[in-house]
Design a protein that fits this description.
Shape: globular
Helix content: 40-55%
Distance between the termini: 24 Å
CATH class: Alpha Beta
Strand content: 15-25%
Number of domains: 1
CATH topology: Rossmann fold
CATH architecture: 3-Layer(aba) Sandwich
């Protein structure tokens, strides 16, 4: 009997599953500022102070909230996740793909690696489908107010998160990620990973997965100029596919992912059959 094998589907969040940045649906409008204005100001603050852009934006959220008299709490952020809008097909994607994987004898595990906020994702309608979330988060005081960026996920940290998934580690296992683990003990090899991303911070993890035999998918908002960016990633050899962000059944992403899963399952079954034949030769001797 072929042993069930895990396959990791790993997603960026903003612009990959959701139609824009998660902070832009409710959080930033609460400040009375247009999202494009807020991000421009936040990025400028980071540049002026020599700060990492992701870390700087987390500070700028706190700074702006204080100036506007808005009290931030963990529950406040979580509630922001309720208003996230998703690309077509996302809401039923996970159960559909899990079912297909099960039919092939595969165990599908879904992960998020995002520069967005873990607290907001906790309130998202699709939160229940993820094995783990690797995202930015705040440290809180005894009144549940954010006081400091506890965890920051940028392009380099995303690569480290891949290694954690490969080794079966959780987000907080920072020390263990650098310890040696034999390939045979790693629950999800890179060859059995599919990464979905849309932005610059996704390029390093997408490139690594592609180079190590997995599959990387650059998604773009349908009928938008973002298609050119995704095609460039394809032309530059950073990804295997550049597809419109429509996760509905029988659309391109659905077809590509199911084909990859079928290929993985077929290769596993073929290896099993080969091993059976090798055992026959051994017994004959």
């Amino acid at each position: 009997m072929v042993k069930k094998v895990k396959v990791g589907l790993i997603y960026d969040f903003d612009g990959t599953l959701s139609t824009t940045d998660m902070q832009s649906y409710t959080l930033i409008p609460e400040f009375g500022i247009k999202p494009e204005t807020f991000w421009k100001n936040a990025n400028q603050w980071s540049a002026d102070h020599g700060a990492d852009q992701v870390t700087g934006s987390m500070y700028y959220i706190q700074k702006t909230a204080k100036e506007k008299g808005i009290v931030l709490t963990r529950d406040f952020f979580k509630k922001m996740g309720e208003n996230i809008e998703y690309f077509h097909g996302v809401l039923d994607w996970f159960e559909r793909i899990n079912k297909y994987g099960k039919e092939l004898g595969l165990v599908i595990e879904h992960y998020i690696i995002s520069a967005g906020y873990e607290e907001i994702i906790e309130g998202a309608a699709i939160r229940k489908y993820f094995k783990d979330i690797f995202a930015c988060s705040y440290a809180y005081d005894d009144k549940d107010h954010p006081v400091w960026p506890a965890r920051v996920v940028n392009y380099s940290i995303k690569v480290q998160c891949l290694s954690k998934i490969n080794k079966g580690l959780r987000q907080i296992d920072d020390r263990a990620v650098n310890e040696f683990t034999p390939d045979s003990e790693r629950p999800i090899p890179y060859t059995k990973m599919i990464y979905f991303g849309d932005g610059a911070t996704d390029i390093p993890p997408m490139k690594i997965i592609k180079e190590r035999g997995g599959h990387a998918v650059a998604v773009y908002k349908p009928k938008s100029k973002d298609k050119n960016k995704a095609i460039k990633l394809l032309n530059d050899g950073r990804v295997n596919f550049a597809l419109p962000a429509d996760y509905s059944e029988n659309k391109e992403i659905d077809h590509v992912v199911k084909t990859i899963l079928l290929k993985i399952a077929t290769e596993i079954n073929l290896e099993y059959l080969k091993n059976k034949e090798e055992l026959k030769k051994t017994k004959k001797r």
